[in-house]
Each structure stands twice: as structure tokens, then as C-alpha cells.
Design goal:
- This protein folds into two domains: 1-33; 39-76.
- The chain has four helices and no strands.
- The chain is mostly helical.
- Helices cover 71% and strands 0% of the residues.
- The radius of gyration is 22 Å and the shape is elongated.
């Protein structure tokens, strides 16, 4: 790490937890690059598609407890 970054880090670590979290969020967001201009419309279309599938009964819903149990079994071997 270069000295300038070390100095910024040292100053950042003096901040309270909330300020550090906000700073970390902003720093991570700066790595994402430009926002996709079509993303919001694509998500709206996907949400509408999923709601329609639920309303027409073409998709089978599962209880959270069952999904959680399956995930734990698959990932944790429980």
C-alpha cells in the first residue's frame, strides 16, 4: 500500500463505526463502474414475469423452512 493510502486508512480507522461503514460502502461502489441504464427496466420486467407466474400458478412456491433446510443440507451437510 502506498503511503498516501496508508495515511487515508489511518484517518478512516479513527472514524466511528457508522462513518467507516458509509466510507466503505462508497469505496466499494466506486469499483462497480458505470450503472447499466437498462438494469431498472430489466428488473421491473423480471419482477412482473415472476408475479405473473405466481398468479397463474405456473410456478410452484416453496415454504422458506423447506428451502432453508435444503440449503443447509446441500451446503453444510446437515
Amino acid at each position: 500500500m502506498i503511503k498516501a493510502a496508508e495515511a487515508v486508512l489511518a484517518d478512516a480507522l479513527k472514524l466511528d463505526v457508522e462513518a467507516r461503514a458509509e466510507l466503505a460502502t462508497e469505496l466499494l461502489a466506486s469499483l462497480d463502474g458505470p450503472a447499466d441504464p437498462d438494469a431498472e427496466a430489466a428488473w421491473e420486467a423480471e419482477i412482473a414475469r415472476r408475479v405473473a407466474a405466481i398468479e397463474t400458478g405456473t410456478v410452484k412456491l416453496e415454504l422458506w423452512e423447506d428451502v432453508k433446510r435444503r440449503i443447509e443440507k446441500d451446503l453444510l451437510g446437515r
